[in-house]
Specification:
This protein has 3 helices and 32 strands. Strands 1-2-3-4-5 form a 5-stranded antiparallel β-sheet, with no helix packed on it. A 5-stranded mixed β-sheet has the order 6-7-8-9-32, with no helix packed on it. A 5-stranded mixed β-sheet has the order 22-23-24-25-29, with no helix packed on it.
């Protein structure tokens, strides 16, 4: 769930393909990471009318990729000045955990509690996040200039989805834990433009470059479950897809002014499972008739309109959207390329037009180039957030109680080999991570931790362009 200003090219840091500026929500949408001309910022998303900037770094300018691991202090950063190098930081300690260099520009980085995935235009690297060991290199993947890929946040399977073709809408689903291909999904006629998994990784949503139809497939089978029509009048560029935490809703944003929210509900086999409405009746009739009609016609009949919508004040700008629970209510969050975060209230029962709850300004005057567009709806607009210094950030209390030692990133080696993180940790609420115990080692293997927790430059590793496994 991220937005970048033209981060998909491979023309080099001086070409049009890479430009600073990005925004990404973390895996459970409790945090927003922002890459800017001067560095990067991290915001906490726990309140509607208040946006807390919990950290700001000016050490790495022109950031075009920044990803945070859940609510922990592990942050992955890629800068235009070194687009082939990935830096991993412990932002509260102010230390660099490690950095890796790759043969071409990094286009995307995805991570969960087990795996860290780096996507280049024609290759994908899969690391074990515990020790950053390179587990697999997928070479000669179909040309993917936008770095499109999705990694499930459910570490028990760590499914990875990426385009299986540069000319048609095929999707490859790969098991990043067991390192083998799961299925190939013929999803669309035109190339894939957006991908996302739901939280337990039982569903995968996709959209093509045409942007008119969004489809949802079962995982790992790859069967089509839902088909939603975003619109028929024009092709659009869908910039992001995101499931709600409970998997009942799917939001989609594009370069138009409209954000769509679709509801994933099947028409029940009996009338007792659904409302006795004209729409429900017609849905049954269409479903029954579809088996007698040509595939194109029946497909059109099975497509559902949006359950809820949002109309932004501007169009033509890239943005990223997500659905989250904030202050115990469902919200739609939209971060735009011009540096604003919109928070909308969503009615989970009746849908319709979502109401704007608050609008936050993310950028300061030093974060962007050129002229800025004047804010609209100023009654909802908060000031640009002042971020605390490193000393203030390091003094913040732990994000929450730790219920268990999680496999995958522990300074003392983590849990015993073969153990997995229990599924009940995903049962309710965001997962709180222990900064002291849940990261790759801050020193190279076999050495002793530095008493002052200084940055470790000796961990730098160069990756060879060879397939492993």
């Amino acid at each position: 769930m991220e937005i970048g200003e033209g981060t998909g090219g491979s023309g080099g840091p001086d070409g049009p393909g890479l430009r600073f500026g990005c925004a990404s929500f973390n895996q459970d949408s409790t945090s927003l990471a922002l890459g800017t001309k001067t560095g990067y910022k991290l915001f906490s998303l726990t309140m509607v009318d208040k946006l807390d900037c919990i950290h700001e770094s000016a050490e790495t300018p022109d950031v075009y990729i920044v990803e945070r691991l859940f609510s922990s202090s592990l942050v992955v950063v890629v800068s235009i000045s070194m687009p082939q190098r990935m830096n991993i930081y412990h932002f509260k300690k102010g230390t660099e955990i490690c950095n890796y260099s790759y043969p071409n520009n990094i286009l995307a980085v995805k991570l969960n509690r087990q795996r860290l995935v780096v996507c280049l235009e024609e290759s994908i690297y899969i690391h074990n996040i515990k020790d950053m060991k390179l587990l697999k290199t997928l070479l000669n993947t179909p040309s993917n200039p936008s770095g499109l890929c999705a990694l499930s946040i459910n570490h028990s399977n760590s499914y990875l989805a990426y385009p299986g073709s540069a000319t048609i809408g095929e999707i490859i689903v790969y098991d990043a834990n067991n390192l083998h291909t799961v299925t190939l999904i013929p999803a669309h006629d035109s190339p894939v433009a957006a991908l996302t998994f739901n939280t337990p990784a039982t569903k995968l949503a996709s959209a093509s470059e045409r942007g008119t139809v969004i489809r949802v497939f079962s995982i790992p089978e790859g069967l089509r479950l839902f088909e939603f029509r975003r619109g028929m009048k024009r092709y659009v560029n869908i910039s992001s897809l995101s499931f709600s935490p409970d998997g009942q809703f799917l939001c989609a944003s594009s370069n138009t002014e409209t954000v769509h929210i679709f509801k994933l509900e099947q028409l029940g086999p009996s009338g007792g499972d659904e409302a006795a409405t004209w729409t429900a009746y017609m849905g049954k009739m269409f479903s029954a008739a579809s088996s007698y009609l040509p595939a194109q016609v029946s497909g059109m009949m099975s497509q559902d309109r949006a359950f809820a919508t949002v109309h932004l004040v501007t169009s033509g700008q890239r943005n990223v959207c997500t659905l989250a629970m904030i202050q115990k209510l469902p919200r739609l969050l939209v971060a735009t390329a011009n540096g604003h975060l919109f928070i909308y209230n969503v009615d989970p029962l009746d849908g319709g037009e979502c109401t704007l709850a608050h609008k936050h300004r993310l950028f300061g005057v030093d974060d962007v180039q050129g002229e800025r567009t004047e804010s609209q709806g100023s009654e909802f607009t908060g000031p640009a957030q002042a971020c605390p210094s490193y000393a203030a950030t390091a003094a913040l209390p732990a994000s929450g109680p730790v219920t268990a030692t999680l496999t995958g990133y522990s300074e003392d080696g983590g849990a015993k080999k073969g153990e997995v993180i229990p599924e009940h940790e995903f049962a309710a609420g965001p997962v709180c991570l222990d900064d002291e115990n849940e990261f790759p080692p801050l020193t190279a293997k076999g050495s002793t931790p530095d008493a002052n927790q200084t940055a470790v430059s000796s961990v730098t590793k160069k990756l060879r362009v060879t397939a492993e496994g």
